[in-house]
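Case study 2.
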Amino acid sequence: MNQIENKLLEKFTEFDNHQSVFRLDDEATGLKGFIAFHKNQKRVPSFGATRFLEYKTEDDALRDALRLSRLMSYKSAMAGFKYGGAKAVIIRNDEFPKDKILKAYAQKLNELSGKFITGTDVGLDLTDLKKMKRESEYFVGLKSNPEKYTAVGLFFSIEVACKKIFGNESFKDRTFAIQGVGKVGHEFLKIVYKNAGKIYISDTNIDRLKFIQKLFPKVKIVAPDKIQKQKVDVYMPCALSYALNKKTIGELNCKIITGSANNQLESKDIADKIYEKGIFYGPDYVVNAGGLISVVDEYENKNFDADRIEGKVKKIKKTLEKIMEGSDKEKISPARVADRMAEKIINKLKN
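Prediction:
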């Protein structure tokens, strides 16, 4: 595992004076990728999941690692943790067996001696996690079900948003448009399906859509390029990055945006434009922190306690309320307020 010099990273706009970035490269197994540390603390590890995804170029993979590790720093800070933020991305290569790549990755992780604690993200599942855990002790997510608690955090966040927008926290007859019904989208549907009104879903995986509709018959499937256009109370980006961009924000027909995807905003000014449209946007790294909260609890405690974890996840409500207060007072987007709060915490932790 080789560290990349900062001068080689400065050409990337996603580079934010990261603490360190390592290249993963093993020709024998097909392992290629990156581990990026944003603002990790010296005495504690950094947390961030591992993504297994096909990228057009290595630079694209590196950019993903840089921006996601930064987001993890903000997520950790706003969740009240002193842990740093990091992210690993593995470039999918179908010419090599997946198991072989993941085994090599887990073994490489041991070289960091616990500096990086990770779990599964896009492209990896519980089966993969169990296999990697055999090779390295620095994996979490086997006990805590982070997808479930990400969904729980979204539920609490939407309660707060509904109270602000509609005057009450009730989900009865509320309408939803969910972009991406993977692990988190599925868990969220389990929570709200019985009480919600119309629910629109989209996904690029047709088999996944059929599976979800079989479990939840009243959901209505729409094309991926039409999901943001649905007239609903809540639009939920739960797929990959940049769902909120120059094109899609002009098509929004919702009152609230709260989703599990990371890096939902194509650029910071997108949040300003959403605010100007009168739509409430829950900053992604605040509302989707339930998964991180659950795996940190797993790391810190030998026993699993669902009530303890849910109690911690519920604190997202208070954080979001503080962000709302700041937004209303300063007349700026919630995303701007959240960024300021997170940066203040991160800078304090560095000193």
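The longest helix spans residues 58-78.
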